[in-house]
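stuck on this:

***
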Amino acid sequence: MFFEYRHDFDVALDVLELAVLSPTLIERLAPRLRHIESVVQKEHEVEGGKLRRVWGYQADINIPALARGVITKEMCAWEEESLYEISTHRGTWTITPNIEPKWRKLFSATGSYRLAADGATSYRIVEGNVELEVPRVVAEIALRLIIGEIKKTFEAEADMLREISTGY
């Protein structure tokens, strides 16, 4: 299932980009992610004009009693790896769930984002595709829930980027 979001910022592109590159972005963002129990920065490296970062998430979820024998809290965790190229103002991201490797082949979440300017303002376009290889009825419901959580995270990140880049 494909999705796309646009976030507008009342700052120049280079100011927005500095916020994206900030090593403290996740520390400031974490308290705003109400659907996330914890998020930690596992890697943040700027080298050769590229930023590579890895954030680890643990969802704040109440697993229904019926599913507790199959789904554990640990399975509701994931890593997001991003690679951002400064010269092109473009990045890619991949989400890897914390599930057994044999089940990972059933899930795919990848995408890209780009920063661009429109006069004195700038914007970010986030695109992604989430695929789940399970029966169609289950997949449709699960994909809507997963993409809803992804949207909440990117919206909160956009709010934090605004705050960092404007000082408000």
